[in-house]
Amino acid sequence: MINNNFPNRTKVQARPFGISLLLLFMLVANGLSAQVTDLQTNQKFESLLDAISQANAGTTLLLRDGVYSAANLQLNKPITIKGSQKAVLDIQNEGYGFVITADSVSIEGISIKNTGLSYTKEYAAIYVTKSQHFTIKDVLLTNVTFGILVEKSKHGTISGTTISGEQTKEASAGNGIHLWDSSYVTINENEVFNMRDGIYFEFVTHSKVNSNNCHNNIRYGLHFMFSNNDQYHDNTFKENGAGVAVMFSKQIIISRNTFSHNWGTASYGLLLKEIYDAEITHNTIAENTIGINVEGSTRINYKDNDFISNGWALKVRGACYNNVFEDNNFMFNSFDVSYNSKLNDNAFVQNYWSNYSGYDLDKDGLGDVPFRPVKLFSYVVNETPETIVLLRSLFVDIIDFSEKVSPIFTPDDLVDPAPRIKPIVRD
């Protein structure tokens, strides 16, 4: 929960960048100093706080280029704050930047930096609470604990923002875009890096995450829990600490995303835990320790995905039922599928496997010999991780061949009956 006890003292000061007196006079003469203009009345303010206090509902405040030093600016009426990214709100480590508590508030085009750091409060550059129809667009947020923090709000848009922090430890860092108990929010074309989680959802419904780039975050590029009926399309999640985690949710659509270069002993492209009735299609999962790590997830369709050069392409840890893996490319992975149960209730249908060595006598593009994607050695590594050092040895080839001929440790019916001979070419 968010602590709304803001500091009683609000320090507001507008000052231009360090320039000569002559240049300062020229800028003022041309109306380019750190100054706010009410576009409804054409009134000018030297103080951002005064401009917000005196603005009428529905007006637009234009921030001229310059640095505005202020914190905890409460936007409690429907107004628009607008400017170029050379208009900079410097919070000076005093707490929050803008606090939106009204409907139909818009913040566009400005820069915000230097939120406060606290282990008890979630200081954010922009904090939205109990608001509807809010817009945050084309803002630049630097050296922030939390970038944009939204709670109990709906029908909002966050687009075109760039968010970064400077913390290096998970305990002192915050999330780039953090939503809690909200709905019908669109998060589109943002870049988030050097935060704890790039995008975080908790109890968020009917929302969309499209075309974002989350990279080099301390923990997850995307992390969401208890969030139903959401969609994630065309995002890139690369080189994050642990990859992407999707947990305790249902009715999720994940398509056309790239999960790549998430390496580490506890890293994966995508973690699925307790997920139900989901569609995971047309994604690229490449060069991760584990491509998809799935546990306790049921009725998921994995279709038209590319698993390329992962340690484990797919690691199924149990309690996963009635899932379908169809028309996927499994190419050059150390292990295509790892399975820790002798029971199988999942279907593998016409996938391409680069490790397949069968033949196609009738030339229909499908192998005439079924393929068993679970190698015995993957079972051994699950039981004794240290044996991974034997991966390229002749001993491994021998035991894998013996298990293929007469399955004992792996599910007898876990097969792709008619694997594809050639990789599926994507449009």
Description:
This protein is mainly beta and 427 residues long. It contains 4 helices and 39 strands. Strands 1-5-8-11-14-17-19-22-25-28-30-33-36-39 form a 14-stranded mixed beta sheet, with no helix packed on it. It has an 8-stranded parallel barrel with strand order 18-20-23-26-29-27-24-21. The longest helix has 12 residues, at 394-405. Residues 1-32 have low confidence and may be disordered.
Put the structure in a nutshell.
The chain is mainly β and 427 residues long.
Helix/strand structural class: mainly beta
Order the strands across the largest sheet as they lie in space.
1-5-8-11-14-17-19-22-25-28-30-33-36-39
Q: Low-confidence parts, pLDDT < 50 over ≥5 residues? A: 1-32
Q: How many strands in all?
A: 39
Strand content: 35-45%
Helix content: under 10%
Total count of helical runs of at least 4 residues: 4
The description of the largest β-sheet is: 14 strands, mixed
Characterize the overall form. elongated
Rounded to the nearest angstrom, the radius of gyration is 26 Å
Q: Could you give the distance between the termini?
A: 45 Å
Query: Could you tell me the mean pLDDT?
Result: 88
Write the layout of secondary structure elements.
Layout lengths: L12 E3 L5 H9 L6 E3 L4 E3 L2 H7 L5 E4 L2 E4 L3 E3 L4 E4 L3 E4 L7 E3 L5 E3 L2 E3 L10 E6 L5 E3 L2 E3 L3 E6 L2 E6 L2 E3 L12 E12 L2 E3 L5 E7 L2 E3 L2 E3 L4 E6 L5 E3 L2 E3 L4 E8 L2 E3 L2 E3 L9 E12 L2 E3 L3 E6 L2 E6 L2 E3 L3 E5 L7 E3 L2 E3 L3 E5 L7 E3 L2 E2 L22 H8 L10 H12 L22
Parallel strand pairs: 4-7, 5-8, 6-9, 7-10, 8-11, 9-12, 10-13, 11-14, 12-15, 13-16, 14-17, 15-18, 16-18, 17-19, 18-20, 18-21, 19-22, 20-23, 21-24, 22-25, 23-26, 24-27, 25-28, 26-29, 27-29, 28-30, 29-31, 29-32, 30-33, 31-34, 32-35, 33-36, 34-37, 35-38, 36-39
Antiparallel strand pairs: 1-5, 2-3, 2-4
